[in-house]
């Protein structure tokens, strides 16, 4: 009886417990059925989410073009490979859609993807063991080219699939890389936490115009089964992507190619630390070409030596190219008399200020005119103009008027302005010839546009227009913008004439920059490099930044160009203007022809180019007379009656100023003072002299006196000094520039 009561009691408890649980579960079920929610989460939405696939539809990044419509940057289709490894995906199918034989699959894929078989095999086997639906292959399976994709598809490997992706491509490699920049795939987290990859601009135009170029991605969603296949009624939703806008640059592919080619040649031959070159239309401000060395390939921006676009981002002491603006200021201010004489060599304002020295060691050239001082690149002339004629405060006003104290505001990222050091009297003087203060090539190019454009300074730019990639409609287009007029048209013309004298004048430092078919002018510069360890400037003939700022045709310049070469490795017979002039001549001459600018030296060339006739064994006086009639530069070796040797032969063509050496049958030693090392080497070869040189550059002394008879194997010794320091102006083809005595002329 007692047992029965206990049993009944426990049964009642259990019935009550299970009834309570049943009521709770039933109530919960009825609540869920009625509301469709669990803990505030909609079951319908949850189910949709679980059986709905959502993908981003990538927009196509806008293209970058040159001014003629040549593609410089575009999105290239690439593919991501993945493998389906779950066997049940192929149930009831005639052909399997999963990886059937992992080893065979790995063996087939490895040589195409250029990886070890184990890399592929391990990923597949790991996915199978983990009961995953599909696997990817990391770096080995990403960015697969169209060609490799098609090759893999021909293998008919079950389970291997591809997803289309994009990779930014630059078809011209290093071409204008510091302007175009580069973009790369980077991960981005969306608001919902989803991680996607998108192409993002990192440098150059890709970075500057990133928001316009990248466009807006689209979106697609659809309902699927557990194998990711669409349902018959997938409720598909599509938001179309908006492709990015296209950017057209002012860069001209032909001119930019010229710049790239010659920079590469000079880089190969001279191995300089740095090089820059920029070409601009001074009438409009359009930058037609811009190059730097070292450069990089934006398709593979790894181990890059120089990320900086030195043309706009690396200010340095420019040297004598600044004298263009010093003379312009003096002329505009009405205080310049080009024929006025002044004493060269050194100049000291007072005992408290260190003296200024001309670049030939302070020797100077006696009393010369200010016009000649420009041709010879006299530091003393620049200093006297700034201190005595213009006045340092007024001179600073002109520096500001030329915008040399601020950025050029070119439409490129990363521009850095130089700094005008103008606190102390010595700094105010040295700025006049380009020492102490710093500037970028672009600041100087902008300033010189005023000289080349009748006094009107234009804004430099590289973005020509922005175009809607879908409709072709021009969204924005730039036009020339005059941003100042620091000088008058008369002053600009006067300065252009002075610039021409640097190239064609008797004492000009830029004779090597002469063009064949066009008149040109400019200003050479040889800037000292501050010692990175402190204590003044670097020394040695290679430790300079050699430069040239020029324009052509000189009467109405259509192009202006700046070139700089830092610390080239020069041979003893070479000078700093050799690599700089090689770049300038090749780019400027060919660019003007390409632009169909009419040559303005055509008639001059017809009359000055001279073809050498037969001269061997001919009468000396007759040959000399014939050459003199054609204004040729002839040096006769000896007083013999016949010509027995020469550095030219029948059929050669020569131009004025090109030295012709004629050896007679009675050779005597000529005066070789002022000769270049090349000319002396030719003389030694023609006369079989044994030559020993001391120093480099141009001859300042010789051990055999002029007129002394010379015989084969005679010993001749010559002493040379760097170009621009020679006392004779006869062959002053280059400027040593700003090589002042550092103890007396320090800017520290």
TrEMBL record:
Listed PROSITE patterns: PASTA
Keywords, in A-Z order: Membrane, Transmembrane, Transmembrane helix
GO BP terms in the entry: cell wall organization; peptidoglycan biosynthetic process
Main localisation: membrane
Enzyme Commission number, as recorded: 3.4.16.4
Subcellular location: Membrane
Chain ranges passing through the membrane: 12-31
Top EC class, one word: hydrolase
Keyword hit for rRNA-binding: no
Occurrences of domain PASTA (ranges): 665-722
GO cellular component: plasma membrane
Keyword Membrane: yes
Region feature (Disordered): 721-748
Catalytic activity: Preferential cleavage: (Ac)2-L-Lys-D-Ala-|-D-Ala. Also transpeptidation of peptidyl-alanyl moieties that are N-acyl substituents of D-alanine
Pathway(s) where this gene product acts: Cell wall biogenesis; peptidoglycan biosynthesis
Comp. bias regions, Acidic residues: 727-748
GO molecular function, one term: penicillin binding
Protein family per UniProt: Belongs to the transpeptidase family.
Protein name per the record: serine-type D-Ala-D-Ala carboxypeptidase
Source organism phylogeny: Bacteria, Bacillati, Bacillota, Bacilli, Bacillales
């Amino acid at each position: 009886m007692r047992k029965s009561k206990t049993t009944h009691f426990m049964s009642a408890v259990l019935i009550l417990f299970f009834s309570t649980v049943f009521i709770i579960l039933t109530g919960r079920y009825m609540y869920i059925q009625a509301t469709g929610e669990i803990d505030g989460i909609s079951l319908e939405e949850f189910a949709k989410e679980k059986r709905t696939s959502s993908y981003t539809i990538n927009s196509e990044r806008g293209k970058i073009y040159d001014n003629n419509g040549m593609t410089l940057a575009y999105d290239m289709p690439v593919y991501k490979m993945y493998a389906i490894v779950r066997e049940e995906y192929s149930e009831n199918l005639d052909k399997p859609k999963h990886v059937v034989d992992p080893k065979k699959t790995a063996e087939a894929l490895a040589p195409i993807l250029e990886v070890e078989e184990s890399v592929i095999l391990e990923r597949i086997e790991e996915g199978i063991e983990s009961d995953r639906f599909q696997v990817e292959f990391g770096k080995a399976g990403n960015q697969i080219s169209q060609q490799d994709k098609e090759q893999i598809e021909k293998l008919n490997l079950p389970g291997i699939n591809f997803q289309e992706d994009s990779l930014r491509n630059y078809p011209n490699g290093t071409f204008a890389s510091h302007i175009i920049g580069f973009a790369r795939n980077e991960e981005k987290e969306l608001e919902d936490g989803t991680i996607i990859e998108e192409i993002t601009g990192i440098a150059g135009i890709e970075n500057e115009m990133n928001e316009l170029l990248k466009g807006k991605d689209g979106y697609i969603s659809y309902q699927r089964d557990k194998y990711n296949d669409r349902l018959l009624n997938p409720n598909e939703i599509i938001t179309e992507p908006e492709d990015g806008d296209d950017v057209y640059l002012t860069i001209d592919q032909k001119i930019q190619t010229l710049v790239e080619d010659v920079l590469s040649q000079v880089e190969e031959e001279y191995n300089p630390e740095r090089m820059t070159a920029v070409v601009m239309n001074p009438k409009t401000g359009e930058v037609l070409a811009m190059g730097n060395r070292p450069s990089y390939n934006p398709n593979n921006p790894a181990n890059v030596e120089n990320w900086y676009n030195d043309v706009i981002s690396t200010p340095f002491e420019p040297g004598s190219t600044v004298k263009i603006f010093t003379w312009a200021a003096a002329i505009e201010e009405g205080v310049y008399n080009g024929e006025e004489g002044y004493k060269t060599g050194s100049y000291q304002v007072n005992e408290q200020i260190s003296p200024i020295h001309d670049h030939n060691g302070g020797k100077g050239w006696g009393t010369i005119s200010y016009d000649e001082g420009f041709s010879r690149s006299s530091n003393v002339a620049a200093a006297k103009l700034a201190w005595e004629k213009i006045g340092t405060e007024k001179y600073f006003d002109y520096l500001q008027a030329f915008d040399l104290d601020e950025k050029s505001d070119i439409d490129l990222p990363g521009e850095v302005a130089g700094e005008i050091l103008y606190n102390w009297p010595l700094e105010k003087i040295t700025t006049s010839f380009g020492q102490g203060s710093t500037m970028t090539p672009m600041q100087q190019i902008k300033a010189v546009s005023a000289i080349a454009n009748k006094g009107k300074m234009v804004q430099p730019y590289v973005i020509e227009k922005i175009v809607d990639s879908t409709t072709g409609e021009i969204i924005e287009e730039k036009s020339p913008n005059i941003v100042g007029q620091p000088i008058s048209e008369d002053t600009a013309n006067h300065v252009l004439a002075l610039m021409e004298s640097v190239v064609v004048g008797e004492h000009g430092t830029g004779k090597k920059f002469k063009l064949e078919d066009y008149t040109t002018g400019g200003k050479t510069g040889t800037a000292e490099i501050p010692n990175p360890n402190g204590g003044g400037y670097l020394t040695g003939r290679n430790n300079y930044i050699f430069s040239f700022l020029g324009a052509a045709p000189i009467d109405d310049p259509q192009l202006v160009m700046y070139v700089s070469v830092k610390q080239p490795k020069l041979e003893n017979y070479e000078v700093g203007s050799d690599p700089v002039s090689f770049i300038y001549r090749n780019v400027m001459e060919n660019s003007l022809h390409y632009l169909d600018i009419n040559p303005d030296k055509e008639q001059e060339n017809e009359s000055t180019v001279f073809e050498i006739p037969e001269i061997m064994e001919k009468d000396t006086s007759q040959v000399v007379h014939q050459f003199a009639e054609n204004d040729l530069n002839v040096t006769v070796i000896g007083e013999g009656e016949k010509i027995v040797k020469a550095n030219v032969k029948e059929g050669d063509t020569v131009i004025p100023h090109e030295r012709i050496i004629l050896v007679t049958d009675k050779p005597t030693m000529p005066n070789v003072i002022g000769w270049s090392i090349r000319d002396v080497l030719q003389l030694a070869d023609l006369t079989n002299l044994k030559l020993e040189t001391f120093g480099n550059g141009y001859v300042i002394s010789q051990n055999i006196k002029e007129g002394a008879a010379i015989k084969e194997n005679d010993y001749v010794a010559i002493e040379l000094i760097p170009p621009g320091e020679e006392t004779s102006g006869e062959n002053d083809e280059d400027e040593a520039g700003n090589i002042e005595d550092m103890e007396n002329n320090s800017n520290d």
